[in-house]
């Protein structure tokens, strides 16, 4: 049902499972999660008709569904979800720095982002708030790229929501940073773009993601971003908790 939205790219949503170099065990787990066929408490109670509670075994507050575990559990949000989000940001930042000739290690996962990187009129900011003349409540995108000579600025923000919320989250990000974009254009005299990078918890992506990634300097693969975004909360949680 998540793929019924006309703005969802069905082909790219599944492509990474075929070409992403994922092991069979991990692939089967992801597909089971996509099909809502993981042995959660909610699945056991509603589908298997077992007489057990359906609340999450971690937070004890919400229904233990795939959607809840993949992006909504307040316990997992404190660690696994943040790690997953930061890995996607790290991969983007690594590719951006490499494109601009900024020194980076051989592998993206060894990359340690600096708050500010500058090279030949290019400034790349990592998780930095922008001080504005007028109050802007949301002023800290994940990555900012300022090109002095071309007078352009790119605001990049990443999210890994429920699969059915991918299209909605993309629109929310654009609206969320609209005021900051306007202020930056006025203060820095540049043309500012907001680029949302949204990857569903089990790989769902919108038709617009490829276009957004093409606007970000560097080489960015949807397959790689999908692969990076899944392990933190799905594989680790199910292996450590649901099978216990």
Structure description:
This is Reverse transcriptase zinc-binding domain-containing protein. It comes from Cryptotermes secundus. The protein is an alpha+beta fold and 244 residues long. The mean pLDDT is 88. The protein is built from 10 helices and 5 strands; from the N terminus they run H-H-H-H-H-E-E-E-E-H-H-E-H-H-H. 38% of the residues are buried. The protein folds into 2 domains: 24-76 and 232-240, no CATH class; 81-229, Restriction Endonuclease, CATH 3.40.91. It has a 5-stranded mixed β-sheet, with helices on both faces. It has helices at 10-19, 24-34, 41-46, 66-72, 74-99, 166-176, 178-188, 209-215, 222-229, 235-242, and strands at 116-119, 122-126, 143-147, 152-159, 191-198.
Q: How do the helices and strands line up, and which of them pair or pack?
A:
Blueprint: H1 10-19, H2 24-34, H3 41-46, H4 66-72, H5 74-99, E1 116-119, E2 122-126, E3 143-147, E4 152-159, H6 166-176, H7 178-188, E5 191-198, H8 209-215, H9 222-229, H10 235-242
Parallel strand pairs: 4-5
Antiparallel strand pairs: 1-2, 2-3, 3-4
Helix pairs in contact: 1-9, 4-5
Order of H and E elements: HHHHHEEEEHHEHHH
What profile does the largest beta sheet have? 5 strands, mixed
Q: How many strand segments? A: 5
Rough outline: globular
- Low-confidence spans: none
The count of helical stretches stands at: 10
**Structural class by helix and strand composition:** alpha+beta
Count of spatially separate domains: 2
Distance between the termini: 30 Å
Q: In percent, how helical is the residue content?
A: 40-55%
Mean pLDDT: 88
What fraction of the residues are assigned to beta strands by DSSP? Answer: 5-15%
* Radius of gyration, whole Å: 19 Å
Question: From the coordinates shown, what is the CATH architecture of the largest domain?
Answer: 3-Layer(aba) Sandwich
CATH class group of the largest domain:
Alpha Beta
Record the strand order, biggest sheet: 1-2-3-4-5
Protein name: Reverse transcriptase zinc-binding domain-containing protein
